[in-house]
Amino acid sequence: MRTDFCKTFGIEYPVVLAPMAGVVPDALVAAVSNAGGLGLAPLWHVNADKLRKSVRNIRRLTDKPFGVNLNMEFPSMEHLDACLEEGVEIISLFWRAPGEFLAHAQSGGAKVIYSSGDAADAKAVADLGADAICAQGWEAGGHVRGTVGSMALIPAIVDAVGDVPVVAAGGIADGRGLAAALSLGASAVWVGTRFLAAAEANVHPEYLSHLLASSENDTAHFDNLFDIGWPDAPHRALKNSTSQMWEDAGRPDLGQRPGEGDVVASSPIGGDVLRYQSKSPSADLTGSVEAISMWAGQGVSMVRKVQPARDIVRDIVDEAKIALERIRYR
Ligand SMILES: Cc1cc2nc3c(=O)[nH]c(=O)nc-3n(C[C@H](O)[C@H](O)[C@H](O)COP(=O)(O)O)c2cc1C
């Protein structure tokens, strides 16, 4: 199963650990890379010194390829330069157009994966020379760039970008999803929600128990609900007491929402967490974790147990092989 994406990025299996700020520690990035997939470290929300420390730590834990994810909503050339100085070979850019970051990363020797939610945007960045495009469908957990579901988005982007490898994201949580994505012309899958249940993930136990018990009906896409710290960025999360309060109040606008300003949790490093804050429920939080943004994709119904990351990679690949065989003989 060595696809074009695998060849471009020097990995064995076409399974990418989605970068997920706050809940993907260095050990999880390394575990996925050691298993033959590609670990992506979300390091845009830490300072450049911490970024360097993480990169060195990941390198201590794996000699396989891994990458760093940067967020173009909060662009920082200092972060990109730190990556390049540390010899990071793969940079993932998401949310906004990459601007000068694409050429700068490539001139520093890195390959660039650009996350996109529509075919015209993906084509524009592929034409600029991106090494791969991540097609993020509407089913995805966390911040969601576009409005099109994976089934329609993946082939649209595949058709638009020519030979540039496409990685499919959004609602892909097992090998059937990998087989489907390959059938649609993608060259790898980018898996988020399933890896929240990796043994190495830095998720709060309460968040984890909600994930393990949730069905495909239990998430919702919000335009601007968990907006403190990152406004006007649509996202998908588990429905919770905060979203229920807001629905019950008739979905009021910003400034009139119930419980606005409530401190619902706190973290020893980040301090108070507000009810409508954009914040991954990491293991270090105390308080009412259920009330904050429990990011999750619609594929959450396929997340039923905690496993070491290497087993998740292996299961996805093995199941995909079986699914592809079944297609052949049906
Ligand atoms: C908890 C969480 C945090 C996320 N944080 C980031 C991030 O920091 N950078 C990024 O590019 N995408 C982020 N995303 C989006 C994922 O990279 C990915 O697109 C998404 O998880 C794929 O859909 P899935 O959850 O259905 O697998 C996040 C997603 C989740 C669930």
Characterization of the model:
- With 330 residues, this protein is of the alpha/beta class.
- Helices cover 35% and strands 18% of the residues.
- Helix 2 links the parallel strand 1 and strand 2.
- It starts with a helix and ends with a helix.
- 50% of the residues are buried.
- Bound molecules: flavin mononucleotide.
- Flavin mononucleotide (FMN) binds next to strand 7 and strand 9.
Q: How do the helices and strands line up, and which of them pair or pack?
A:
Blueprint: H1 4-9, E1 15-17, H2 26-34, E2 38-42, H3 48-61, E3 66-71, H4 77-85, E4 90-94, H5 100-107, E5 111-116, H6 119-127, E6 132-136, E7 142-143, H7 150-161, E8 166-169, H8 175-183, E9 188-191, H9 205-213, E10 219-222, E11 235-238, H10 241-248, E12 263-267, E13 271-274, E14 286-287, H11 309-329
Parallel strand pairs: 1-2, 1-9, 2-3, 3-4, 4-5, 5-6, 6-8, 8-9
Antiparallel strand pairs: 7-11, 10-11, 12-13, 12-14
Helix pairs in contact: 2-3, 3-4, 6-7, 8-11
